[in-house]
């Protein structure tokens, strides 16, 4: 039985919260039901649930493949946070444009959400797609985004939360009222990060894909798709 | 063969070279897929080597089942946010006062401005003068807890008593690993390293501009790494992505 088969059998038709689902999946992992899952590295795992409007019953569900990998963009930015002074690293946005990510810089700003007036929103987004193609650390965008909106769009996440008890970072995103019928095959987590080349310069927001995951869940027109990324650091 | 026997056999007597560094990486890679299920959290390793020939005399490492600190989780969580132009904050627990002195407990936390991805200039969080990474060793025996915010028992003499500024961290795309390490020494005292911590020295604007050390991971080192006067300790953290 694959992981996808297992979670579909366990959760489709159930009225369970995302946290209940995550607790059960990770418990199964810790019980060594699914060997690879206990070796999850530091990366977010994607949980996708599909619901009818106004209902919390799970119509379809998918979870990241245990051996999915996190992207170079995240590793480069994460490493840059461990430093002994000003650091500039290069990340690549969804259009293939390499941009300087400035850490600990007294001269330039990256992702400044500070006391200065900001005209561009920064934060995190998600996107779903058909999947297929290669999943490698150098990916910078989804392989096959959906065609019809809103499922073709990136959508905003909520605020991330840290759950001390389970040692998990959890963040949710909701895609409402899809207009096509299809199956999710991939999802991505993105940072909307701003780079000012100098004080007072034009603000540029770059969309940086941080994680690219394989997860399957079918949907029909009019349904809602919940996506939850979880970093389990237990 | 248990972890302690493995690292003793693999490292003691070897020369401290880039090759050895690679060997350490191999060790962690093996452990990731080994029976202990290493990760997802940083692995820590400490070793004593002599400056004369670089030979490793003693080595210890964190246990795969060690835990991560709440500070790290809050920091990581703060990366995820509703896109907005509004200032965001997160609350972490700082070590007790400037330089780690009294009071030993400060659990209220500072309101940090998006402690990860809002890398901002001037007088705000993580400015050019405050943003570095430090590693500290200690001799505490207690099991680290998720709400730890400092080394349990620091050594008495410097530099082994200090939080030591690290070089820049590195990322290997081929193996998906982030690592940061530093040499501490030559030592002026003797003792046995039994704990290791990694800290960020961050500046926060709120409620008033102040700097402070924030512990991200606290690890028990086993076996203890014994050192005497004049030796150098190499300490490194690994994050497998």
Task: Summarize the entry for a quick read.
The complex is a heterodimer of chains A (234) and B (241). Chain A is mainly beta. In chain A, 13% of the residues lie in helices and 35% in strands.
Description of the molecule:
The complex is a heterodimer of chains A (234) and B (241). Chain A has one domain. Chain A has a five-stranded antiparallel β-sheet with strand order 2-1-14-9-8. Chain A is built from three helices and 14 strands. Chain B has 241 residues and is mostly beta strands. Chain B has one domain. Chain B has three helices and eleven strands. Chain B is globular, with a radius of gyration of 18 Å. At the A-B interface, helix 3, strand 5, strand 6, strand 8 and strand 9 of A face helix 3 and strand 11 of B.
Measured distance between first and last alpha carbons of chain A: 25 Å
- Counting DSSP H or I runs of 4 or more residues, the number of helices of chain A is 3
Q: What can be said about the biggest beta sheet of chain A?
A: 5 strands, antiparallel
Helical fraction of chain A equals 10-25%
Oligomer: heterodimer
Structural class of chain A comes to: mainly beta
Order of helices and strands of chain A: HHEEHEEEEEEEEEEEE
Helical region count of chain B?
A: 3
Number of strands of chain B: 11
- Total individual domains of chain A: 1
Largest sheet descriptor of chain B: 5 strands, antiparallel
Q: Give the strand tally of chain A.
A: 14
* Radius of gyration of chain B, in angstroms, nearest whole number: 18 Å
**pLDDT averaged over residues of chain A:** 79
What is the general shape of chain B?
A: globular
Structural class of chain B: mainly beta
Q: If interface size is counted as residues with C-beta under 8 Å from the partner's C-beta, which chains form the largest one?
A: A-B, 71 and 64 residues
